[in-house]
Amino acid sequence: MNQQTQEIAEHGSRPEPDRTVRNFSMLLSSTPRGARLARLLAVDTLRSWELPHERASHVVAELAANAATHGRLPGRSFRLTLYVVGATLRIEVTDTRGDRLPAPQAPDATAESGRGLLLIEALADRWGVAEGRFPRKTVWAELSFTPPEPAPSRSGAVDD
After folding, report:
1. How far apart are CA 9 and CA 46, in angstroms?
2. How many C-beta atoms surround the C-beta of residue 16 within 10 A?
3. Around 142, how many Cα atoms within 13 Å sit in the side-chain half-sphere?
4. Taking the mean position of all CA atoms in its chain, how far away is CA 78?
5. Whole-angstrom Cα distance, residue 35 to residue 95?
6. DSSP character at residue 96
7. What is the pTM of this model?
8. Please, what sign has the CA dihedral across residues 11, 15, 16, 17?
9. Cβ(42)–Cβ(35) under 8 Å?
């Protein structure tokens, strides 16, 4: 019996890292209403997974608004996809305007728009663009979070 096997036999099974992969994906209309629905669905999904949703809701709102505004083609939808692997949430928004790749710009101080990707850069740990089979593109952002702590066990606890 090697040392690792002996330790497992003496102390029970080795704790495994959380390998749960969660995902959510939905097609939404490329309209302002579809963009709002994307944010609401993301928040609802993350709440049901008992994960933080504040930063993610802003990221989804920006990416979905960009897809509905700049990635819009009549009659074409965009796809919102959420993946959670370990302590990382990946948000993907896929639209059908592969000819329009996003790039952060320094907006004019008086401009009413043009700050969305700057917000993504500030909120996400990483983000980028993946060109898909033409005419698609996927804009993605990853957010790291601290997984929820399991409730402390009260077995064997002594009350004072």
Report:
1. 38
2. 6
3. 11
4. 16
5. 12
6. S
7. 0.77
8. negative
9. no
Instruction: Single out the residue of 147, 85, 93, 91 nearest to residue 124, CA to CA.
Output: 91
Which tokens sit at 115? 């700050």
Contact at 8 Å (CB) between 89 and 23?
Answer: no
Q: Where are the beta strands (DSSP E) in 30-117?
A: 77-85, 88-95
Closest-CA residue to 95 (of 62, 131, 60) = 131
Read off the tokens for 148: 């929820």
pLDDT digits (tens, 9 = 90+) for 99-118: 888 877 777 777 666 778 88
What digits encode the pLDDT tens for the residues 18-44? 567 899 999 999 999 999 999 999 999
- Which of 127, 146, 145 shows the shortest CA–CA distance to 60? 127
Distances (CA, A) of 127 to 90, 121, 160: 9, 7, 50
